[in-house]
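Sequence, structure tokens reproduced for reference:
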Amino acid sequence: MPAAQKTPRPGRPPRLSREAIVAAALRCDLRTATMRDLADELGVSHSALYRWVKNRDELLDLVSETVVARVLPDTEPTPDTWREWLAGLAWRMHDEFLAAPGFAARVALPHRHAPHAFDRLRTGVLRAFELAGADEEMAEQSWYVFGLGVVQWLGARQLGHDLGTAPPRFDLYLDVLLRGLPAREPGL
């Protein structure tokens, strides 16, 4: 005799939360997943999901806020630890960005970044470069070099993995990157 199939019980759908939505989004490929894909992953209707998240941009903002909160160090950099602080941050970015399918590749593409999340990241990195002796302008330039360098490497790694190629080892890349930072005026 065949096993009885369970029919869905009438009543309220499963409860959603921002945490559940972000957790499900981090399991999806963020380059290609649609809101319908995410609703399916959560086991809810897409209209139920839209009550929590207005659109894909808002979803990516939520994911970015979560990922940035995970990568930011608990400690502040000091004049003696700024380079180690940045290296630790870069390695946490490596681990967290690559753990989420498509996240690094998505962040590496030109798009509107989650302003609150990435401003927190920017502020910490600027502080590290200022403690290293960079003036405000060179700290800003160093942030761009560091942020762009790390994010582009991670995006290339994620995309390269899909294409069967990969950038140089992250430890080598990061060592060379940090030895050249903070930025200085050419010729000085």
